[in-house]
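Holo model, flavin-adenine dinucleotide. Inputs:
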Amino acid sequence: MGTQRTVYIAGAGIAGLTLALALAKFGTRVVVIERNAQIAEFGAGLQISPNARHALDALGLTDALSEKSFEPEGIDIYPDGRTEPLQTLTLGKIATARYGAPYVVMHRADLAEVLAAAARRFANIEIVFGVENFAVTQKDKGVAVTFTEAGSIDRKGTGFAFVGADGVNSATRTNVLGGPAAVYSGKIAWRTLVPPAALSGLLDLGRTSILMGAHHHLVVYPLPHRDAVNLALFTDARERDLDAAMLRQTPGLKAGPDRRLATILERAGETWTPWVLSTVRTPLWHEGPVGIIGDAAHAMLPFQAQGAAMGIEDAAILAPLLASSPDAGHAFTRFLALRRERVDKVQALSAANGRIFHMRWPATLARNAVIRAQGPLGHFRRLDWLYGYRTHTDPKS
Ligand SMILES: Cc1cc2nc3c(=O)[nH]c(=O)nc-3n(C[C@H](O)[C@H](O)[C@H](O)COP(=O)(O)OP(=O)(O)OC[C@H]3O[C@@H](n4cnc5c(N)ncnc54)[C@H](O)[C@@H]3O)c2cc1C
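Output:
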């Protein structure tokens, strides 16, 4: 497999960096073009489920990830202002034993740094920062790429393939492939980190907690390596209210009868960063030697905590195809066949969770009965297809 083969990747996010690493291991030369001046994942946490963790472990990242991540023992579910959890879904060692990789939480910046540090060790990965105005055209069987890098330096090159891992508003999807813009989901995410002391006595900080109420839910988990707790609050919002919401640092949510939520909101104060949640549905994931992965191809609601996980899986599956296929179009066609059904299913599950988490009475009665009936291990049986999936990048597997 050719060391001469060059793959261009737009975006040094989680999907782009994972793909760069996975390709570099096959000896492929990789040029990552990133709009930001540096690796920039700020301000919030990420749950990495066993399916994604398994793919990252296969890239040799186990120790680096273990140093910076935390394994919650379970997920406490508190609907409708309950003081005790309605259910605690088991995670921890039982999840690790079942899936062969742990279910962890970590700070996004720590995951980005683990990926970037690993990428820096490969001479065949170049990350170019401060990139503007990239353009891609098909040339012979490959691509011709032009872009301007920091310092207004124009660059051009040719490659075997171009992969857009440039996120939900991907220019590769809209400008190069002529695909659709992302669509607003009707929901906003509000994110902040607070010191553990701010939640003392309110929640078990050895676990993840989900507080559900009408038109909102709050996800809480510890980030001990940052001495912080991650709060992600999701609210329903009309499109016409978005501009005003983006200017605020507080969700302005009325917690109603949920006294615990009211206290958390009060203690977090005006530290929140809003994020508009949009999704991507496009039939076109590639054309010839140009393709898209991660949020660029299938941004989803974060209510199954799988957006980054799907980008990681995409990368692990696409890399060997690009490294070994005779032409990139063939690799992308195979990639689509391997990925589409699974990603569609996860996208639909994530959207359904949004409806379930934000239910109002009396629909909540049936929902709560189902949560109670599934027991502490029911989610494993329901989600084995998701967490037990293998990308098969590990040559030992
Ligand atoms: C509140 C919230 C919570 C979430 N929680 C989870 C979770 O727990 N688990 C999980 O798996 N997922 C979660 N997600 C989803 C996850 O954050 C995304 O799916 C993931 O970050 C997407 O990765 P990506 O690499 O595809 O895109 P991005 O992370 O968006 O990276 C895209 C990169 O491309 C660069 N770029 C963009 N445009 C250009 C351009 N024109 N030229 C060059 N570079 C460009 C960007 O600067 C960026 O570096 C969550 C999302 C939200 C909003």
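The pocket of flavin-adenine dinucleotide is lined by residues 10-16, 33-36, 46-47, 131, 134, 165-167, 171, 189, 191, 232, 275, 294-296, 302, 305-309, 311 (CB under 6 Å). The two ends are 21 Å apart (CA to CA).
Archived with the compound record.
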